[in-house]
Amino acid sequence: MKRMTAIDIGTNTILMLIADVDSTGKIRVIRDEHIIARLGKGVDDKRKILPETFERVLNSLSEYARIHKTEQSEQIIACGTSALRDATNRQEFIAFIKSRLGFEISILSGDEEAEMTYVGGVSEFIVSSQTQPFVVLDIGGGSTEIVTGTNETVSSKNSLDIGSVRLTERFLKTSPPLPSSLEDALHFVRDHLRGLARPPEGTRCIGVAGTLTTLAAIDLQLRTYDRERVSGHVLVIDVIEEICARLKGRRLEELRAIPQILPQRADIILAGIFILTEVMKQMEVVRITASDRGLRYGILLSAARGKHVGGG
Fold first, then answer.
1. CA distance 140 to 116
2. Are 243 and 273 in contact (CB under 8 A)?
3. Which of 29, 30, 182, 298 lies in disulfide reach of 119, CB 3.0 to 4.6 Å?
4. Which residues pair with 78 in a beta bridge?
5. Are residues 101 and 135 in the same domain?
6. What is the mean pLDDT of residues 279-289?
């Protein structure tokens, strides 16, 4: 087994997984960390990573680099997603991080992100003796990936320019949002989901990332986050809509006071739930299983199997 570090530099959150991985897909987790750094703040509007964001993200990545060394990991694979794809000054940011920390950030295409998110998302649910169709939904800060497949084989992938940070900055600017803003946000999401197909009968729907794990924690009434209980928890659309109805009239400080919602996620949670419910309705899916895995797991699994996914 080889000890590797995957860093998923998302629009809202930066996640790090350090694990011992082998070519068969066996994973032994050493560290699994996340920091909400809001890399994509202002990117949808200005198409640039803001100057103050450079230092904020550097601080987060410096801490990850320290942990990587402490845990004697052999390799860092750092990948950026939607915000870095959209930012016109992405190369300046990548050069800044490399000059300070010594590692390269690779920018994944939407298709690459979708495929590796799928691999990571289904990894804890595959039963080797069974053939199982999956659809994996990843609601990010800047984009949403919807990927279908069977076991680990991807058959179709969609990367859509709708995400919780993008939707919040564009439409949900007040707390609580104005009714007209909620309507505008819903129309925007629905426009992006036109033509989204219903998955085949028997498909298991998996949802990764913070919107899903937060909803699972709320539904389970967890006072402190429990990865073991959250991953695998099944949410039904009626429950999701009931939670949404409770949250959409609350002020930001009230959302931050809810123990299952990270304070740094409170301003974008409603947008994430909007995207989730509309995807489920469009695909005629009534249940979705929350997964605490996702892109960072897919990065390590892909690398362990010899696929080039980033620098060392």
1. 14
2. yes
3. 298
4. 7, 105
5. no
6. 95
CATH code assigned at 279 = 3.30.420.150
179 and 59 fall within a common domain: no
Structure tokens at 297: 């797991």
Q: Tokens 């009931």 map to which residue?
A: 242
Same domain, 278 and 141: yes
60: its two tokens? 């987060």
For the record, the structure tokens of 215 come out as 């909803």
Q: What letter would DSSP give residue 129?
A: T
Look-up: residue for tokens 């897909």?
Answer: 25
Q: What is the mean pLDDT of residues 287-308?
A: 89
Q: How far is it, in rounded angstroms, from Cα 108 to Cα 57?
A: 18
Spatial contact of 140 and 82, defined as CB atoms under 8 Å apart: yes
pTM to 2 decimal places: 0.85
- If pLDDT is split at 50, 70 and 90, which confidence band does 165 have? confident
pLDDT tens digits along 220-238: 999 898 988 999 999 999 9
Beta bridge partners of 287: 236
Give the C-alpha separation, 50 to 141, whole Å.
Answer: 16
> Which of 196, 195, 192 minimizes the C-alpha distance to 161?
192
Per-residue pLDDT reduced to its tens digit, 95-148:
999 999 999 999 998 888 888 999 999 988 987 778 899 999 999 888 898 999
